[in-house]
Amino acid sequence: MGVKTIPPAARAYIGCALLAAGACVLPALRPGAPWGTIALLAALYALCELPARCPLPGRALGGSVPLGTGSFFPVLLAAALLLPPAAAALAAVPGSLLARVEEPPAAPRRAWRAAATALAVWAAAHAAGALGGPAALGNDRDAPDLPYALLPAGAAALALCLVLTALDGGIRATVEGPPPRAAWRGLLGRALAPHLVHGLAGLMMGVLWRSGHGPVAGLFVLLPMYISCWVFAQYHRERAAHRATIRALVQAVDLKDRYTRGHSERVGHASVLIARELGMPEERLDAVRFAGILHDVGKLGVPTRVLRKDGPLTPEERRVIELHPEYGHEIVRGIGFLDEARDAILHHHERMDGSGYPYGLRGEQIPEFARMVAVADAFDAMTSNRSYSRARPVPVAVAELERCAGTHFDPRMVDALVRALDRHGWRPAVTADETAAPPGGNVPRAREASAPSPPRPSTPPSSSAPSPSSSAPSPSSSAPSGERA
Amino acid sequence: MRPGVLTVGAVRAAALLLGLTALGATLRNGLDQPGNALAFGALVALGELARWGAAPGEREPAPLAAAGALAYALLGESAGSGTTHGVLQTVAVVTAAGLAGIVPHLARGRGPGPDHLARRVLTVGFAALCFQPLYNSGAVVRHLGEGPPYALFLGLLLVLTALCDAVLAALLLRALTGFPYGSLLRDELRALLGIGSAVCATGAVMALGVAAAGLWALPVLAVPLLLTQVSYRRYEAVRTVNRQTIASLARATEVAGCTPPGHAHRVAALSAAVGRELGLSGAELTVLEHAALMHDIGQLSLADPVEGGATALLPAEEQRRIALLGGEVVRRTGVPPAVAVIVERQADPYREQPLPARIIRTVNAYDDLTGAGADAGRGTGVGGGPGAALDALERLRLGTARDHHPDVVEGLARVLARDGAVGMTPVVPG
What angle do CA A436, A437, A440 make, to 5 degrees? Predict the structure, then answer.
């Protein structure tokens, strides 16, 4: 069948769906079916799905095409309102067979989609028919019964949505194995509103199709829907581009300071773990993730020679490195949606007892996001290999964090991280190149000041960089008073 | 007086005259089919209200209002019986409803500019003028009947109207910015393919839908268009964020001390203006702008920042090496690969370069020569002033043998000569 093997349960499921769809479509093949309308609607649906398949018309529309199926439900819903159930199901088949398949096993996917769409349209047509939909559309002589016609159209859209969601949830359950209830829960809520809007468009298309202006007028209804889907596809493309740009920002840091590869992404991940554990609403989690990912972006402003310096740092160089939170804050200043994340970038080296930098804020003065990122940053610094120290096991790192809770870190954040680790574990995506010590990064940076270590107040503030055996400079050396604003 | 002022004044005066005449005539003669007028007026007013949260410079901030206005202009029948509202009533209703809809926006100081209103009034007047006299005299129904040809006729009228609107918009922009008309018109026409076509199609379908099903068709058809508007907003929002992120990446070189403050933005804005001047439009301009923002990104890979950040004063080989390093970084961002190519080739001799790379090379050199970085090199101590600009242009002209394309240098000179007011404002919000 395809490249990927399909579980037998899914095979049987698809087979059943195909049989059921065949049984639904069969009555349409009797003589006397409205072949003209079927052919027109089927061709229209296929035509609407085609740009997703062929690059040429897609490119003419600006390089991006509507996503997969689902774009042209108005046509299907119009078919469900205009035609008897079997004929409507038949009209849906050619288009769903032709449409593009995203992933490799194409034949079974096409067959599955055709069967599911035909079944859903059949159900929608039955729902509309039961409420007198076709009659409510009116015709050449009778005006449509408009406020009432909304009811069959809504019922058709609802039926289409429910059947498609149920069938999709079923196939997910057989292929991937989550319980069907979990597979369905997410699907239905998201799908309902768009389907109802498509129902409205399908209704107007049906009304105009039947009216004296003929099918041509019905076509005009499709254009706004088509544009809407096209814009939606563009939106997804642009969002992917934005993610790539953020990654590029992070990778630009890697260009300069190669020993922390993957660190930013992991800090983003750990920050989200903490935030979720604290019950932060879903929409703020994105900001937390960006705060974690971008927390070190200010290193772009530190001269590469200093970052890669092979040997102890002079106090001057240390001060330059400790400017990186402020540089980072300045770099992302123009990005509108980062708001809270920007504060986290500025303050992620502050400490609860006020010994951090750049401002020496203490306790609740430090923004919440910054306290989160500080814990995540320290945790990842300890559990990953650094050129000056081997990765410590998670329990050791956690013990270290707990020891410094209250002085360096917000105990609430530490607790949240510990709870989250208990629940989800820590599976950092350690890349292979991380274990190899990159050239020129043999000295711990002041940046690592957030990595907790036994406080050694005896270290004078102006001392040079700590020896490679210690994981971090002492608290006192990391916050030179000259840096406080 | 600049020639642009005359054009803008003429357009505004024409719109004002049309609107006042229409309102006056309608007040004197009373409304035909007040039900229709009220329903479409309400739709237009609501559509204008729905411009909440529109980003400045959004192409069609109130698509529902535009579609409703067009539909009223092309309304022949309502639920089976003919209408008799003429051109003037159409314009009057649309103007009054549009004004009513933007009052809350104006009260908060964020209303649309007068040019937007003028365009709306003139466009609707054009559509109504094409359709209403023909329909009211019975010629349309006599020749085309009420079947499919009628629907196609409406479609044709809307295409004409959209073209008229695009011409008008480009004319206004030309008057305001002084950019070449062709490139502006191309931009406007390309935008028609997006939300513009959705607006036109909804306008036609509303006119036909009301003819077939009465006024109930209006709310039913308004919902899909609102959905389009929402998707468009979301798309624009993420586009803005992406551009801001790219600008941040560009600012990284400034924070690192590789380039003088504001360099990337100045080069991007000036490059976009020069690109416009040389006839680039649409996607080409976006690519140029992104490449200009990131043209210095290769310096991040250098161990030491270039003194003063003025790459134009470095030896050619070094410039090309930095350009190649920059291309590598740019390739990892989400921008089209064309941007990376331009960044890589910015330091090549101009005969081997594509046009956007030529523009960036020349504009970058101009900014380096006029900025602080140049002072150290020349020891003149003149930073910025008009003398520095002329000096820099002179040096660029001397470089047209190998480094700078003569057309690009002349384009830059024209943009700078045009008082620099619009050409110099940053395209990318900081």
Answer: 145
